[in-house]
What we know:
This protein is an alpha/beta fold. It has one domain (20-208): Rossmann fold (3-Layer(aba) Sandwich). It has 8 helices and 6 strands. The chain has a 6-stranded parallel beta sheet with strand order 3-2-1-4-5-6, sandwiched between helices. Helix 2 (52-61) crosses helix 4 and helix 2 (52-61) runs parallel beside helix 8. The longest helix has 17 residues, at 82-98. The chain is globular and about 45 Å long.
Amino acid sequence: xxxxxxxxxAQEKPPELQNGRRRAVFFDRDGTLNKEIGYLNHPSLLELYxxxxxxxxxxxxxxxxxxxxxxxxxxxxxLFEEPALEKIHRQLSDRIQAAGGKLDGIFYCPHHPRAxxxxxxxxxxxxxxxxGMLERAATRFGIDLERSFIVGDRYVDIQAGHRVGARSVLVxxxxxxxxxxxxxxxxxxxxxxxxxDVYQAVRWILQQL
Length: 209
């Protein structure tokens, strides 16, 4: 291959693969992909937003990895156990797929520093705003975190993304509206974009590519 051919090959290579790593969209779960109801402890209570599957599908077609990162302190508080949570996540994946999208992975943090269940009582690096879940996903899937995005309805999602250099979107579903109203008055780093919902968030992300 001559130098001209090599240059053309590099230009044709998808941007997300140029450094050998891929871009991802990290999605919060409750209040972002599905309705916020408090502690979701059974698959029958999962209510997906009607635009969630379409949003994930948009990211899929742009060759972005789609990964859920969710704090699940209900495990630590003894409200449900991890097998029940895994059933909920299978239901979430199935419903997203039925609605036109595909989740590449789901990471959750079951810990809390004041947990009732002693096994889960610890200061961990995975509970958002910690970035542990994002970093584990990056290792597993070969993700370039600094060229990735995180979408959520709370400032802990925004903070987790900023810790790894990812761009962030706050959605106004779930707790998003009240978080945004309170967050503007606080001295903290703000999201890169505010969207009415996760579908609008992904559309903005695609414009950034």
